[in-house]
Amino acid sequence: MAKFLGLGLTHYPLLAGTDAHMAGLLRWTLADPDIPADLRDSASWSPRMRAEWSDDGGVAAAAGHRATLVDNLARCRRALDEFRPDVLVVWGDDQYENFREEVVPPFCVLAYDDLQVPAFEVMNERGSPNAWGLPEDFTITLHGAADTSRTLASELIEAGFDMAYSYRRRAAAHFPHAILNTQLFLDYDNAGATLPYPIVPITVNCYGQHAIARKGGLARFADIRTERLDPVGPTPARCYDLGAAVVRALAATDLRVALIASSSWSHAFLVDKTWHLRPDTDADRRLYDAFVAGDTATWRAVTGAEIVDAGQHEMLNWFCLFGAVTELGLRRDWSTFVETDVFNSNKCFAVFSEETA
Ligand SMILES: [Fe+2]
Q1: Alpha-carbon span 87 to 253, nearest angstrom
Q2: 302 CA to centre of ligand 1 in angstroms
Q3: Each residue's pLDDT tens digit, 13-53
Q4: Spacing, Cα 324 to ligand 1 middle (Å)
Q5: Distance 211 CA to ligand 1 centre (A)
Q6: What is the distance between the alpha carbons of residues 46 and 192, in angstroms, rounded to a whole number?
Q7: Which helix (H) or strand (E) holds 181?
Q8: Minimal CA–CA distance to 88: which of 158, 193, 182, 151?
């Protein structure tokens, strides 16, 4: 019988950059001329947002945010090492990376062998040095689990869950950051170079009606006014059901499987109602409280429209995890919720394990 561990963590791309760039998404947003000037003026911001932004554009606060995130990531890594997984199943968004205009699958198992992947392409393009002071062309080996991935896809399809699969990453595009950064950040001390565990990535079309329309998420309001929305992404309840189906499919194996939700919660750049200036912290807190309480009914009742309204697109990865750990009856050992106004997204971390007798 398989053994399971559940983890949730962030893949916040700007954590791979330096403190001077960590508020870069807000800085980009503040240059949008269609956002009312008084709202872009820090004098109108909440006390916390002003404190984080301070007089240095968030540079000092970035050090504190980084320390908190790295500490929580290390806690996840310790749980992972103690568990000694054979494989990591990672749910992560594809943000206009592997999947573009040709086809956008709701879910896709990436059945890849080991891959050499440039670690810092996103930060290089953003003009930020990487946090480790490594060369821009530094690459890491992402350990794949092609056979396990193929078998899992097959089992899911036989169980009635029509799963897409991919045998080759898209050429001339970033490797999906949700997967890459999971390895980078779980092995933060070594910039991802020494994480020994193979990964079964399952991409989730978290961006749904914005997958192509906003080409990865960031958009100016002038473009949003005329955007041609895509079909919606998979519903939160379907993602929850996928998580449950994945663990049922793996249960009969003898693998030690770490199940990982990879994403932050609401993203400021996706919250139109806050003019992309802040994440929807109230909506995040509501779901976090339900998460801690094991209130699956509240999560299953969330609609795709509510997810989009709150900029919680990437939380679909967490719906997969919540469905999986609930199906297994795993115990939530620990979780924490990190709030911020200037570093784009609130971040959640969690560890679930099997009850020991
Ligand atoms: Fe993401």
Answers
A1: 12
A2: 20
A3: 999 999 999 999 999 999 999 999 999 999 999 999 999 99
A4: 20
A5: 12
A6: 36
A7: helix 177-186
A8: 182
Distance 333 CA to ligand 1 centre (A): 25
Distance 343 CA to ligand 1 centre (A): 14
Tell me the CA–centroid distance for residue 317 and ligand 1, in Å: 10
pLDDT tens digit sequence for 167-204: 999 998 999 999 999 999 999 999 999 999 999 999 99
- Cα of 218 vs centre of ligand 1, distance in Å, is 11
State in Å: Cα 341 to ligand 1 middle: 17
Burial class (CB in 10 A: 0-12, 13-18, 19+), 14: buried
Is the CB of residue 208 less than 8 Å from the CB of residue 304? yes
All domains of the chain in start order, with CATH: 3-353 (3.40.830.10)
**Distance from residue 177's CA to the centre of ligand 1 (Å):** 7
Strands 347-353 and 3-9: antiparallel
CB 322 within 8 A of CB 291: yes
Under-50 pLDDT residues of the chain: none
